[in-house]
Amino acid sequence: MTARPKPGSKADREALRYDMTAAGCTVADIAVEMRARFRMRPREAWRHAHGWTLQEAADRITQVSCQRLGEAVAADASLLAKWEKWPGPSARRPTPAVLLAMADAFACRVEDLLDLDDRRALPETDLRLLSGTAQSPDQAPPALIAHSLPVEPNGSGLVRLAADESATWAQWAEASNVGDIALEQLMADARALASDYLISDPMPLFVRTRTLRDRVFALLEGHQHPRQAADLYVVAGYLCGLLAWMSSDLGQLRDADTQGRTAWLCAELAGHNDLRAWVLSTRSKVAFWDGRLRDAINYARRGATCRPSGTVSVLLACQEADAWSQLGAEAEAVGALTRAEEARDLLSGEDEVGGIFACQPARQENYAAAVQLRIGRPADALRAADSALALLKAQPVRAYGTEAQIHISKAAAHLATGEAEGAFEALAPVLALPPDHRLEPVTRRLGELPVDVSRAPATGSVGLRAAIEEFCLDSVPRHLALSPGEGTA
What we know:
There is one protein chain. This protein has helices spanning about 10-20, 25-40, 40-50, 55-65, 75-85, 95-105, 115-120, 125-135, 155-175, 180-195, 200-220, 225-250, 255-270, 275-290, 295-305, 310-325, 330-345, 360-375, 380-395, 400-415, 420-430, 440-445, 465-475, 475-480. By secondary structure, it is mainly alpha-helical. Among the domains are: about 10-135, no CATH class; about 180-315, Alpha Horseshoe (Serine Threonine Protein Phosphatase 5, Tetratricopeptide repeat), CATH 1.25.40. The longest helix has 24 residues, at about 225-250.
C-alpha cells in the first residue's frame, strides 16, 4: 500500500495553490494559508505561494537586489533554505539587505516576511533600519550623492562629484532584474502553454497561463534594459492573447475582450508586428463569437496590414471569410478564402510561438468547410471537411477543438444533402468528448445544427437532439457560468 505524502508535500502545496488561484485568491492569501496549514516559516510560505523552487527564488532575489546600490545579494538554494528556517537550528540570519531583496522578489512588504520569533531574534539595529526602508523603491534612479552632503561643493570637488553622480547612475542603468536566459525561458514557457492548449483541459492551463503572466508583469514593474523590456512585453502580449483566446472558448467574451486590449497594448509597447497580427486575430475571433461581425472583419483586415511572417496571415484571411459568410456575403467570403490560399503559398517565415498561435492546413480547411456551408455549398464543405480530417491525422498534435468543429461541419453537410445517417456518424466523436473539452465554439456550432437532426437515428433511448442538448449543458462554459459567484440565471 502506497504511503500518503506528508502534509505540506509538493502535491499538497500545488493543489492548494491551484484551488486558491482558481478561487481568485492573491499570492498573499496563499502565503497566509500555507503558513497556517503547513506550519511554514513566513519566508518559505511566500516562496511556495509563488510556486518557486529554492533555486528559482534565489535567482530572483539576486537579480532584484542589484537595483539597490551597495545591497547586492548573492543567493543560492542552500543559503536561501537557511534564511527561510532562521531563527531555527542550522539556519542563518537574513541581513536587512537580504530581507529587502526578498520583499522585492516576492512582491510583498518586509513585515510580511517576519513573524514574532523573527522580531525577537533580530538585532534592534536591523529592526530600526528595516522600519525606515521597508518601502520598495519604484525603480527610480538612485538619489544623487550631493543630497547627503552638508555643504555644496565647488571647484574641483564639484567636478569630481558630478563624475561620481554619473557613475552612480550608470550602475543603476546597467542593472537589470531579468537576464537573457530568463527571457528565453519565459518565451519557451509561453510556447509550451500555447501548444498544450490544443490538447489539454482549459481550466488548469488557464491557471498556469495566468501565473506566468503575473511573473512577467512583476518583472516589467522592475528595471531592465530597453531591449529586455521589449522582449518582456512580447511575452506578456502572447500570454494575454492566450488568456483572451481561452476566455472566449470558455464563453466569457467580455473578459476575453479585456485581455485582448491588454495584449494589444503590449504589442504596441514592444513594436512587434507579428504580435500585433496575432492579437488582432484573437480579437477578430472574440468579436465573431460575440456577434460583432463587422468588427471581426475589421480586426482581420487590420492584422493583414501588419505584414506579419508565419501563418497568421492565413488565419486572418480565414477569419475574414468566416465573418463575411455569417453575413451572407458570398463573393466577399469566397474572395477571403482565396486570399488565405495565396497567403499560404507566400509564407516567408516560421511562427514565433506556434500551438494555438499557428494556422496549420487542417485549421485552414476547417474554416473553409464552415464558410462553404454558410454560403450554400454543402458538397464543397464536405470535401473541405474530409480534407481537414486527413490533414489533421498527419499532424503530430491533433487539436481536439478543431477536430470537433470539422466533424460538426461534416455532419451539417450531410444534413444539407439529406444524409442523416452520415450526420450521425460524423457527430459520434464529438458527442464522446469529455465535459472539460466541450468548449464554447463547439457547443455553439452544435446548437446551430438544423432541427432536422432530430430525424437521425437514436442513440439508445435518447434521440440525437436530446444528446446534443445534454452535451451542451454538461460543458465547461456552462459549468463556469454556474460556478459560485457567477449566478445561475
